[in-house]
Amino acid sequence: MEIYFDNAATSHPKPPEVLRAVEEALTEYNANPGRSGHARALAAGRVVLSTREALAHLLGAEDPMRIVFGFNCTDMLNLAIKGSLKRGDHVVSSMLEHNSVLRVLGELERRGQISTTLVAPRADGAVDPEDIRRAIRRNTRLVVLTHASNVTGAIQPVAAVGALCQEIGVRYLIDGAQALGAMPVNVRALRCDLYAFPGHKSLLGPQGTGGLYIAPGCTLNTLREGGTGSSSDSMLQPTELPERYEAGTVNLPGLAGLGAGVKHVASRLTQIMIRERELTSAIWEELSNIQGVEIYSPRQEAARAGIVSFNLGDLSSSQAADALDRSGIAVRGGLHCAPGTHRLLGTVRRGAVRVSVGNENSFDEIDAFIKAVREMI
Sheet containing 293-295: which strands, arranged edge to edge? Predict the structure, then answer.
């Protein structure tokens, strides 16, 4: 039986209610939400709205219409970044970011449209908000920061950076790919203008789903225009949310499954957070007792998400991950789409083995994993 420790890539298994919701969307009310007035279309529209409302509640957002859906978190980060910037703008971000941020900024910079400053974290893996303050210039338009590193799991001081951005008057975007669904998130307390998230990770929904919270008063340029089912007499994209940013047919079965996943998570979020911290701490402590293992994730339980990254002996991360896979244990080796983090860790050549837990993992599975690591050593 396979042991699945790759939840930072996508969560597994999905709750039974998520599977049922996807099936029901394709069978019981399969229609195009917002496009027709018949019973099926209205039922589909209600399910999409219910998902929006569940996410708004989880995020602490007052208006569910300010939750916009897209293909995935990468899609939403593209909208948030490109929709915020104009030629000559400056962006402050960190070396910890995923390529979903770094490549967007890198391409805009390559075209000569923007300039970027990437702040390095401290020795504990977290960015110092004062370093972000020092990096801000007169033409800084946007600050982008991951909520938690997808390589080390190190949780960033997102609330302190939010207070700083609000004080200075700079737009603030958080990449919540490794956070939402795994820890409490309140967008008003974080003082962020934009919060992007995937549906298929800790929210336990299907792949091909993602969303973006857009704060009141924050307007983005659109990346796509098209049919919305509203203002159909106009050749211009509607200005109302969420239609302004949701051109074309939404992913009904995906959003139905996402809604079920969000409700599942919201009803037991504290339990999930405690469980994943306990599992991750057990992995960290056990690995730290094995000679030849180098751990890159923070030791403090409250300082990391459900991720522990490491290398062992002289093996490359790919060799170690392949060996674990042959033992029936699914982890991820490589660079994890975060080149800046690996440069800081000195692991650009060999990558790192990433173990990422979910609420369904067990301590027995951790014992089997540790036994396999010891055998490799």
Answer: 293-295, 307-312, 353-356
The one-letter amino acid code at 268 reads: R
Nearest to 135 by CA among 126, 147, 144, 148: 144
Look at residue 183 in the predicted model and tell me its pLDDT.
Answer: 97
CB atoms within 10 A of CB 143: 27
Q: Which residue in 211, 213, 218 sits closest to 83, CA to CA? A: 218
d(CA 354, CA 321): 9
3-state secondary structure the chain: CCEECECCCCCCCCCHHHHHHHHHHHHCCCCCCCCCCCHHHHHHHHHHHHHHHHHHHHHCCCCHHHEEEECCHHHHHHHHHHCCCCCCEEEEEECCCCHHHHHHHHHHHHCCCEEEEEECCCCCCCCCHHHHHHHCCCCEEEEEEECECCCCCEECCHHHHHHHHHHHCCEEEEECCCCECCECCCHHHHCCCEEEEECCCCCCCCCCCEEEEECCCCCCCCCCCCCCCCCCCCCCCCCCCCHHHCCCCCCHHHHHHHHHHHHHHHCCHHHHHHHHHHHHHHHHHHHHCCCCEEECCCCCHHHECCEEEEEECCCCHHHHHHHHHHCCEECECCCCCCHHHHHHHCCCCCCCEEEECCCCCCHHHHHHHHHHHHHHC
Per run of 10 residues, the mean pLDDT along the chain (length 377 residues) is 95 98 97 91 96 98 98 98 98 98 98 98 97 98 98 98 98 98 98 98 98 98 90 88 95 98 98 97 98 96 96 95 97 97 96 97 98 94
Q: Do residues 185 and 58 lie in contact, with contact meaning Cβ atoms separated by under 8 Å?
A: yes
Neighbours of 118 (CB within 10 A): 17
Q: What is the pLDDT of residue 94?
A: 98
198 forms bridges with which residues in the sheet?
Answer: 210
For residue 169, give Cα distances in angstroms to 14, 115, 132, 194, 212.
40, 18, 13, 14, 21
pLDDT of residue 34: 87
The torsion angles phi and psi of 262, rounded to 5 degrees, stand at: -60, -45
